[in-house]
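User: structure tokens for this one?
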Amino acid sequence: MKIATYNVNGVNGRLPVLLRWLEETQPDVVCLQELKAPQEKFPEQAIKDAGYNAIWHGQKSWNGVAILARNLEIKESRRGLDGDPEDLQSRYIEAMVNGVLIACLYLPNGNPAPGPKFDYKLQWFERFAAHAAGLLAQNIPVVLAGDYNVIPTELDAYKPERWVEDALFRPETRLAFKNLLAQGWTDAIRKLYPEETIYTFWDYFRNAYGRNAGLRIDHFLLSPQASDRLKSAGVDRNVRGWEKTSDHGPVWIELNDM
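Assistant:
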């Protein structure tokens, strides 16, 4: 079972890129972030024509998350997180697909930090961690996939010293991620590639992609039942080099069948 996560940076504007990538790689499940489309503007028919069922949680101009599945039923279990009834941002959707509970998340960026946006990031992280603990307690295969907007360690950033004051790399952010892992989650990429330089995001500026001046901010966290089935993982880095593409590359894992 191949599961991918991709911050598409505008699902309608990048639709040709998304469809090309789906056709070339044919993942079984895809988590999309940053749809930047209201609920009624999601390109459901184009996704369907590509062979995928979809559920999505849209929002005008910003945010938005979706789960796609190829020839598989998607049983939605949640959209949004508990803990703040006034939070209307579309950042979380969750479903059971082929016996695996899949959560698709788009964690807040948090810049500028410190400030209200950073406070919101940390509060959202707390709510997410509380929910994740409940998922872990179910003792089933769970995959938490998405754009975490977290640079976990210095290995995950080109010239990490430049990111010290950034919300993605501040000590509070990294500690929140570390505490999440400590619940019992496995970082899929680091399980298979503990010391390698691997990036998932390259800025549009200063030829970042050409220089491989990137960040690793898109992550797969696996419950023990999913981690035991982890077969392979990687980044479709070449997609970042395509015309009119997202500033993220798709990240993927493969799980062995039960």
